[in-house]
Amino acid sequence: MNENADANFIRPTHFLAVQITDPIIKGKMKEVQDCIVAKESILENVVVGVDLAHITLCLLSLPNESTVNEANKILQRCRDDLMSILDGEPMNLHISGIGHFDKRVVFAKVVPGDNEEKLKLFSEHFDKEFALLKSTNPFEYTPHVTLMKLSKLRSFAMKKKIKQISPKHFEDIEDMDFGHQNVKTVQLLAMSRKKATEYYFCESDISVEESNVETTEAEYAEE
Predict the structure, then answer these.
(1) pLDDT tens per residue across span 123-171
(2) In a domain, 200, yes or no
(3) What CATH number has the domain bearing residue 197?
(4) Could you give the CA distance from residue 36 to residue 48 in angstroms, rounded to a whole number?
(5) Which of 192, 217, 191 shows the shortest CA–CA distance to 204?
(6) Could you tell me if residue 193 is inside a domain?
(7) For strand 185-194 and strand 14-19, is the pairing parallel, antiparallel, or unpaired?
């Protein structure tokens, strides 16, 4: 990133996401992480806890309560458009295969198909609706579930020790089939606020099921 890009960078504080709750998927995520760490133990420092598992749809910069409230209102207004995208069909995402972004992020892939395309349409819609609240994101949107990432490293010493996550560590399991996630809600999550559980603090959510059953805070605590 050059100096001009640094000057224009808007750091995200929140994000819109789909939570991964399926226990089979989370169990296989842990298997993959353990397999990689077994080959290079220092990579334990870059493992993303499976209880944080999600698929990001849009990064947002909401520096104060006013912008958080505005984002909550926009999200609620988006529901009818998202339901139109789904066209009466449930969203069931197939998670299969392992990839990486420049050896700095290892992730589980969302299998291409109708549901993955609808997920991309969700992201595009949010890009438009939240245009004034978006964070800087120079990368093309690729739906994924993060397994490990170097950005978890905070100390300079650790950053010097861990330069990359070698794809050789997972080449023998890169076709792992993680399973299927039924998408019930889209959530507005805070990056820095955690609940008693290990998942992110949910500012608000919208149902993307035809039944329109709201998810309560208590249910998040149980997942």
Answers:
(1) 999 999 999 888 766 678 999 999 999 999 888 888 888 999 999 999 9
(2) yes
(3) 3.90.1140.10
(4) 13
(5) 217
(6) yes
(7) antiparallel
Residue 5 falls within a domain, yes or no? no
Residue with token string 């991309």: 120
Instruction: Give CA–CA dist 14/31, Å, rounded.
Output: 29
Q: Which amino acid is at 92?
A: N
pLDDT one-digit tens code per residue, 86-95: 999 999 999 9
| 8 A C-beta contact, residue 143 and residue 26 | no
Residue type, 29: M
| pTM to 2 decimal places | 0.88
Cβ-based burial of 5 (10 A; exposed 0-12, middle 13-18, buried ≥19): exposed
Number of domains in the chain: 1
Please report whether residue 4 resides in a domain: no
Domain housing 81? 11-222
C-alpha span between 41 and 200 (Å, rounded):
27
Alpha-carbon span 88 to 101, nearest angstrom? 34
Could you write out the DSSP letters of every residue in 51-118?
GG-EEEEEEE---SHHHHHHHHHHHHHHHHHHHHHHTT--EEEEEEEEEEETTTEEEEEEPPSHHHHH
pLDDT at 3 over 60: no
